């Protein structure tokens, strides 16, 4: 009987491909949109993830998320270094500065100033040049996305812009900056170019302000729990101190609560689920109606309601499995294509696939339910009319 059920399904090619297409499109939306959303949210704290060495971030108590750096006095660095349990503490500058390109265009960029002595907080992956080259005069390192995108050298009419290369000259706040390296860094939430330099040089690039220290990066001693050192820094300095994970969570929650990104993407996912359920249910129901005479014959030959339910369920599970496989496969191809691109990207994980597969299972079970009800109410005598 199961073989007959499969022959019934595969024999009607038009409805079979229609059901699969509906499920595949629904799966594509339910996987792709949350995947893009996860990727966008991960960008909100990508800078914290890139600066992986310190255990604790010390900041002004008014800071709400990583891009909301509130400048502090440089003397706070020495107070933090004096706290018990601190192995080392280094300064970090993070701010937005305008970069003038060769054609006079101004591009807003993230300027990162690293500790002059240790260069802690610098990019982990250098594509060209060395991190140590930042100690050269007027030296800066540009992230790959910025070098090939918004900071690329202006092109002549009819030609493409040329990516920045080692040795090219930029102008930051009317001051000379020479590119000594190209690095790979995590994409930021605002997709702005990232420029690395030393802390001292960053303060000269910045506008004249009394306070220029953005963050203090702290490493706790091996025998000291991070939570204890964090509490001591708060008590002794009056500054806010958070572990890297706490700072990520705070940044994520701020973006989540103060933007409509989740609502917009969630609406698309819900629409995909509803449309997938409606299209799949309608086509599967029409498929069942077209085959009512066969189900009537089965009932006249003695097939039980249980057997008919299992036949319809097998048909629904097959189209659900094939449709979900096609949708997930198309999404995986999209994720692979966009993985190395600085712009649009998506995150694909097993939790996302599991959730979407459950949603597809609900869709096909719904389609099977409305079809089963029609079959179970069928009178075998209808085949003889």
Largest pleated sheet = 6 strands, mixed, barrel
Topology as a string of helices (H) and strands (E): HHHEHEEEEHEEEHEHEHHHHH
User: Which percent band covers the strand fraction?
Assistant: 15-25%
Terminal residue distance: 24 Å
What is the subunit organization of this protein? single chain
Strand order of the largest sheet: 2-3-8-5-7-6
User: Total strand count, please?
Assistant: 10
| Rg, Cα atoms, Å | 30 Å
- Coarse structural class: alpha+beta
Q: Averaging pLDDT over every residue, what do you get?
A: 85
Helix fraction, binned, reads: 40-55%
Properties at a glance:
385 residues; alpha+beta; six-stranded mixed barrel; 10 strands; 50% helix
SSE diagram, text form:
Layout: H1 2-11, H2 13-44, H3 46-50, E1 56-59, H4 75-81, E2 86-100, E3 106-114, E4 125-128, E5 139-143, H5 144-148, E6 169-172, E7 175-184, E8 194-198, H6 199-205, E9 215-220, H7 226-237, E10 240-243, H8 244-258, H9 261-290, H10 292-300, H11 305-338, H12 350-376
Parallel strand pairs: 3-8, 5-7
Antiparallel strand pairs: 1-9, 1-10, 2-3, 2-6, 2-9, 4-7, 5-8, 6-7
Structure write-up:
The mean pLDDT is 85. Helix 9 (261-290) packs parallel to helix 12 (350-376) and helix 11 runs antiparallel to helix 12. With 385 residues, the protein is an alpha+beta fold. The chain folds into 2 domains: 2-44 and 260-384, no CATH class; 73-238, no CATH class. Helices cover 50% and strands 17% of the residues. Strand 6 and strand 7 form a beta hairpin. It has a 6-stranded mixed beta barrel. The chain contains 12 helices and 10 strands. The chain is elongated, with a radius of gyration of 30 Å.
């Amino acid at each position: 009987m199961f073989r007959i059920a499969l022959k019934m399904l595969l024999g009607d090619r038009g409805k079979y491909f229609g059901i699969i297409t509906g499920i595949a499109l629904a799966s594509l939306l339910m996987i792709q949109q949350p995947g893009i959303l996860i990727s966008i949210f991960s960008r909100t704290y990508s800078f914290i993830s890139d600066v992986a060495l310190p255990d604790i971030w010390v900041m002004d108590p008014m800071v709400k998320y990583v891009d909301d750096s509130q400048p502090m006095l440089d003397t706070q660095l020495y107070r933090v270094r004096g706290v018990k349990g601190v192995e080392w503490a280094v300064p970090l500058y993070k701010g937005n500065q305008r970069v003038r390109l060769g054609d006079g265009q101004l591009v807003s960029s993230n300027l990162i100033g690293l500790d002059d002595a240790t260069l802690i907080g610098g990019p982990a992956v250098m594509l060209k040049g060395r991190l140590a080259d930042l100690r050269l005069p007027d030296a800066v390192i540009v992230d790959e996305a910025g070098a090939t995108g918004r900071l690329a050298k202006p092109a002549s009419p009819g030609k493409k812009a040329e990516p920045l290369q080692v040795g090219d000259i930029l102008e930051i706040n009317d001051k000379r900056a020479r590119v000594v390296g190209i690095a790979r860094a995590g994409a930021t939430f605002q997709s702005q170019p990232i420029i690395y330099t030393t802390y001292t040089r960053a303060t000269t690039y910045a506008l004249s302000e009394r306070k220029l220290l953005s963050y203090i990066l702290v490493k706790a001693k091996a025998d000291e729990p991070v939570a204890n050192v964090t509490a001591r820094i708060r008590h002794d300095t009056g500054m806010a101190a958070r572990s890297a994970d706490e700072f990520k969570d705070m940044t994520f929650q701020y973006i989540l609560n103060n933007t409509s990104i989740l609502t917009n993407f969630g609406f698309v996912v819900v629409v995909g689920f509803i449309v997938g359920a409606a299209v799949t249910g309608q086509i599967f129901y029409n498929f069942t109606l077209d085959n009512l005479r066969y189900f009537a014959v089965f009932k006249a030959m003695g097939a039980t309601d249980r057997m008919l339910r299992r036949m319809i369920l097998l048909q629904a599970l097959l189209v659900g499995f094939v449709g979900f496989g096609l949708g997930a496969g198309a999404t995986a191809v999209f994720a692979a294509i966009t993985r190395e691109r600085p712009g649009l990207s998506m995150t694909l994980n097993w939790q996302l696939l599991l959730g979407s597969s459950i949603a597809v299972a609900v869709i096909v079970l719904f389609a099977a339910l409305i079809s089963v009800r029609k079959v179970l109410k069928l009178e075998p005598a209808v085949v003889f009319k």
